[in-house]
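hiii so um. not sure if this is the right channel but i have a protein structure encoded as tokens and i wanna go backwards to a sequence. like what aa goes where. can anyone help
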């Protein structure tokens, strides 16, 4: 079988040709440009060369011309295999240089194998390979060569221009689509804002209007409990009703305050206050709840004067203590600490409760969010206490956070700038 030299700057093309030709029993040597191919062929002339046209260093046209002018190589068959130069004038120019075959990709493997077989058979039978017309002077070759390159460049420019036009049309389509979607989103967002505002206004109105009848009910219940000679069952029912009414009154007040703070309509009554005193006062207000569970509130720290709204910050500490006591096991301590730093004061409440799962920790300060109080035998809450804490602390330009690990308790903290 024959030795065949394949020339192409793409490895995948060389690999496909090698597989095809070795499958037919030929030996294959590869080169990645015309200069490399000439060097290999002059060192050991092949029986046939198959070359691409568009390659770096030396292209296929120049290789073919050099091949036909080389005394050692000019009698050996030369085949072009290209996917780039597809114009009939390209083939005409290639054949004028002395090429024996001009095949266009994509081409069936059997066609390539057949052309190789025909050329090798003719060569072995003594037929001469094609020769370049010896009368073509170098200036003529260069002019014809430039014409081919210019024509190919024009084709490329035409293809690029077409691609740019298509890209521009697609870009304009995308811009129209984006504009349309943006308009729709703006309209949807406006509607959502309107609905949310309507919902907030309605909630505020309903809750506000509930306060007056609740106050009447609460007053009537308190007066009734002072009456003498009430049956024990009636007195017990009155106490339960009084407790629930107070709880409902507190919830409506908290909801109104949260709504006002979210809207930025709740002014702060700022003054200089000792946060340690506020912490002790908050602990006193929840001492009854702590005694019911035999929980001891341990207070540590020292006096720290801070400019704040005393009533609001006290409510924050009360909420944190209330949660800690609620979730603490019986007879377990709750620690309240006030620590002064260089630029801020840190207040923390630590319990030994069940802790909060990591997936819930980022949401504990969200309005209406509850972890799992009912499953732990606790009364469900509206999920407003921690939301109020977050809004109140942030209104003071402070920060609030949680550190918790399931089974190892929780530590709620907030800091306020000094």
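sure thing!! here u go:
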């Amino acid at each position: 079988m024959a030795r065949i030299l394949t020339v192409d700057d793409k490895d995948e093309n060389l690999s496909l040709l090698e597989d095809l030709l070795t499958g037919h029993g030929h030996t294959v040597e590869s080169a990645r440009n015309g200069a490399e191919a000439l060097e290999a062929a002059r060192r050991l002339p092949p029986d046939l060369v198959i070359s691409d046209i568009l390659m770096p260093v030396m292209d296929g046209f120049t290789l073919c011309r050099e091949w036909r002018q080389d005394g050692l190589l000019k009698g050996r068959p030369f085949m072009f295999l290209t996917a780039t130069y597809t114009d009939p004038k390209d083939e005409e120019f290639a054949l004028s240089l002395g090429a024996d075959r001009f095949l266009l990709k994509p081409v069936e493997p059997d066609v390539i194998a057949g052309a190789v077989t025909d050329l090798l058979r003719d060569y072995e039978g003594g037929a001469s390979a094609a020769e370049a017309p010896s009368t073509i002077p170098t200036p003529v070759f260069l002019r014809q060569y430039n014409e081919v390159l210019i024509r190919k460049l024009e084709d490329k420019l035409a293809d690029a221009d077409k691609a740019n036009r298509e890209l521009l049309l697609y870009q304009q389509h995308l811009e129209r689509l984006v504009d349309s979607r943006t308009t729709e989103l703006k309209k949807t967002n406006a509607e959502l804002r309107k609905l949310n505002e309507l919902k907030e206004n309605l909630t505020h109105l309903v809750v506000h209007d509930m306060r007056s009848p609740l106050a009447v009910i609460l007053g009537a219940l308190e007066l009734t409990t002072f009456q003498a000679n009430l049956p024990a069952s009636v007195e017990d029912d009155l106490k339960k009703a009084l407790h629930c009414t107070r709880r409902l009154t507190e919830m409506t007040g908290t909801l109104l305050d949260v709504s006002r703070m979210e809207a930025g309509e709740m002014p702060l009554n700022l003054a200089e206050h000792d946060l340690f005193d506020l912490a002790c006062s908050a602990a006193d207000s929840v001492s009854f709840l702590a005694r019911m569970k035999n929980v001891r509130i341990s207070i540590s720290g020292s006096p720290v004067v801070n400019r704040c709204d005393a009533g609001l910050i006290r409510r924050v500490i009360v909420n944190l203590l209330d949660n800690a006591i609620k979730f603490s096991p019986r007879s377990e301590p709750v620690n309240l600490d006030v620590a002064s730093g260089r630029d801020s004061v840190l207040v923390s409440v630590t319990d030994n409760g069940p802790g909060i799962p990591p997936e819930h920790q980022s949401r504990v300060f969200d309005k209406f969010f509850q972890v799992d109080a009912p499953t732990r035998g606790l009364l469900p809450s509206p999920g407003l206490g921690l939301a109020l804490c977050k809004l109140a602390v942030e209104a003071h330009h402070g920060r609030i956070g949680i550190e918790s690990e399931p089974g190892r308790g929780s530590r709620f903290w907030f800091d306020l700038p000094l």
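oh and The radius of gyration is 45 Å.
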